């Protein structure tokens, strides 16, 4: 996906690197859809889906990048999305 398309529909933007599209609660999980800018191609964003268990450090994630598809482990895009989501949740908690 192109980053300029992802930037139009954001809930929260962590700099120009991570765009959080949606955050919703599903059962005991918090599911977030994020778009993270590629380092090699600056106009391309990869979709990251994070599932967090609130109150714990446990999370699972899936990324569309070739590195995640090849290795299967957490990539740098998942890590960046997790950091941005934590910042978003801190801000949301202060607003409430």
TrEMBL record:
<dbReference type="Pfam" id="PF04434">
    <property type="entry name" value="SWIM"/>
</dbReference>
<feature type="domain" description="SWIM-type">
    <location>
        <begin position="46"/>
        <end position="86"/>
    </location>
</feature>
<keyword id="KW-0862">Zinc</keyword>
<keyword id="KW-0479">Metal-binding</keyword>
<protein>
    <submittedName>
        <fullName>SWIM zinc finger protein</fullName>
    </submittedName>
</protein>
<keyword id="KW-0863">Zinc-finger</keyword>
<dbReference type="InterPro" id="IPR007527">
    <property type="entry name" value="Znf_SWIM"/>
</dbReference>
<dbReference type="GO" id="GO:0008270">
    <property type="term" value="F:zinc ion binding"/>
</dbReference>
């Amino acid at each position: 996906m192109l980053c300029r398309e992802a930037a139009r529909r954001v809930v929260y933007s962590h700099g120009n690197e991570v765009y959080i599209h949606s955050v919703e609660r599903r059962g005991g999980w918090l599911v977030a859809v994020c778009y993270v800018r590629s380092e090699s191609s600056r106009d391309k964003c990869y979709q990251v889906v994070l599932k967090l268990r609130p109150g714990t450090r446990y999370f699972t994630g899936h990324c569309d990048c070739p590195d995640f598809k090849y290795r299967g482990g957490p990539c740098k895009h998942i890590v960046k999305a997790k950091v941005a989501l934590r910042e978003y949740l801190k801000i949301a908690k202060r607003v409430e």
